[in-house]
Specification:
By secondary structure, the chain is of the alpha/beta class. The protein has 18 helices and 13 strands.
Amino acid sequence: MIASKDQTKKRVAEFPGAHCGLMEASVMAPLFPNSISIVVAPPSCSFHAKLVASRRLLSTSRKDDRLFCLNLSQEDLIFGVEPLLEETLQELDDLFQPELIFVISTCTPEIIGFDASALTLLREQLHAKVVVVPTNGYESLHQQKGSIDFLCSLVEVMKRKETIPQSVNILGLRSMDLEEVEYIRVLEEAGITINALLPGAEHLSEIENAPNAALNIVVSKIALPLAKKMEETFRIPYLWADFSYKTEQIVKGYEKIVQFFDLPLPDVVERLREEHKQFIEEKRKSLQGVSFAIGSVKGSNIEAAAFYAELGMVPKFITTRMPASGNDLNLQEIRDRGFDCPVIQLERGMKMKDFLQRYRPQIFIGHAQSELLKQENVLHCHPIMHRSGPGFAAIQQELENMTDLIQCGKDMKII
């Protein structure tokens, strides 16, 4: 690392930034219960991986978290990491006897030339299958690259057999309690078999047999590259399940899947729709007149802003990573309600503080620096990780969080 008198720059250089795939790869570890993940990294990076794991310990629904870190010393970087890694893999295989081991490689071993092929002989001796997940932090633009590479590594152990009629794989759903997932319940009611959940597979056999499904349903952007790779390798078609805040779009999402199999929409969808409409009306009064700004959320930022504006909230500004179309129907809907809400395309060097001080929202919805929002007396509605997939339940959970936050803001006299 180049020495710097600026200690702030030094701290930034020492630790993974927001773009580093290591963070998201570490998040994926417990979502494959009969596996082990090992991070191969210097201590500064391992610290952040274990920080992710320690936060999971606070969850009431947590499962065993087999995320291990192999801390590299200067000697390892000089003489190579392969001998140390082989010894560690053998020890973990003997102690835990997992079905699958994910080796999460980081910048340092990749820069010095980590050779995954050197593990070929060891792979034959282990009980577990071993796949390597490169996080490529030094070349990634976003930390989601870690999740993407983690999922794509699964293709290495997949085996194609016979296609199971009316069966699907659900790709990108992050849930620790699958019995509560609305998406799965609706598909099963329609007579569709869930072949595999990736992530979420309990056993290696589910991953191996994933190519037997008739269709892949992609419920998250992180799983889209996996779907494309499986289509190219095994010729399995996929459908993109759009996340939407709008009730009719949610219903159309379910219709698109059942129509692929020439099946009728199950009655449960109509029941869920009516319950959802009632839930929204119950929350509407709590949202009236509260101003908000919006950043990165699940789905479209502009659609989310239109959704909350329709519920009586006041949009102050919307931030996007990509330029917004002047013909965007959701943006037109916001303007038709009388809101001249600026859409700000974020660029390097822009300061969120300037926008907060200029437009003064009471709540910020989406990813942002919580410390900065606190300094500006702006409540932070951090986007939840929608574990139920696209559907009614995800929107209801977000609305529940929003109304609880507003009540908290009123109690603290911020709103």
